[in-house]
Amino acid sequence: MFTLDQEYMNPEKNKIEIVERKGIGHPDTLADALAEELSRVYSQYCLDKYDAVLHHNLDKLYIGAGWNTNTFGSVTKIQPIKVVVNGRISDSCNGEKIDLENMFRNTIKEYLGTVLPHLNVKDDLDIIINSTQYTRVNHWFSPRTVDDVPDAKEAFANDTSVITTFYPYTICEILAVELERYFWTPNDKGYPVPNYKEIGQDIKVMVYRIDKEINVIVCMPVISTEITSREDYYAVVQDYQCRLNDIAKRICEGTSYSVSVIINASYDNDNRGTLYILSLGTSAECGEEGLVGRGNSSRGVISTYRPNSVEAPAGKNPRYHAGRVLSFMGNRLSKAIYDQVGIKNQIVMLTRNKYSLVPPYFMNISTEQPIDREIIEKVVQKEFIDLDYTREILKQRNLF
Q1: Do 227 and 240 contact (CB within 8 A), yes or no?
Q2: Which among 71, 88, 121, 348 would be 20 to 30 A from 162, CA to CA?
Q3: Between 100-115 and 27-50, two packed helices, what is the crossing angle to 10 degrees?
Q4: Parallel, antiparallel, or unpaired for β 81-85 and 125-129?
Q5: Residue 387 in 3-state DSSP?
């Protein structure tokens, strides 16, 4: 079922550690989140109506290329932000059409309207549904009945892929996650709701550690319509820098680490007159672009000194796509091993096209200390093999 060794690579034992987190309004994070939410809404619709998830992959979603200009107290809107839904998706079953247009448009507007409260979903978005049903396999994306969806009965890996995960987080990873999460709170649907109207959502947190000294660089946009001068901008930045330093020190309390947080270092090269000011809260409003797979890992961070794969799970089919399914299940299993056994671990999984998905073709679990294999086997059986994973994936709101 799996191999077990004690080759766990603990980044905290390195002299240097670097961790990044892209915030909820970063174009890449928005692309990941929208692709994931569209897949989730569509999959739930299919389960409710057909008792099966129809074939789809929405992992090529694009967002960006809007154009707004701003100054203190005002904004000029020139070009709306584009959201282009690319990918292939079943648009019918049993001869009935599925209204993808309304489903997708409503979901995109609800999500972006929640995450970006300064955005007007009617005027500031240009939504293009570019999904197709093109395929060389007849009826793969237009099933006549559920019998044309073979994975509804038994799922096999759709591809040869490698997936990695780990648990628990290091102090640097915790700092990256918690400092960005300070700026929002999830609502009842799991969508992130910004906490502070004067702060934009396109935040990036970069944490770097040398020995026991941690420095955190935060890029945090200030909303142009909430300030009236350069002095206002400085005051907002200084206020939040004090807040984040307090949070960082609490996170590091009781450890041997020292920590310092700087927001918008040197006020974004103030000698050039450039300040990090946005009007809608995302740099997609001023020409920046985002694509699925360029944001955070499924663990919510970009952790440089961890084993990594290039798997981009967002928007992929939660029934048979190896990257989507095993990213979720691997994350769950790694955390369960730590919670139940108390051992730091990392997991690497390999699938082969058309071979078993659960369990994967190969799985290696590396732990920091020796552990009885039978103990790990019980956790793997309960939290991995026996899991009704598709419905569990759809319950989860992965905020990247």
Answers
A1: no
A2: 88
A3: 140
A4: parallel
A5: coil
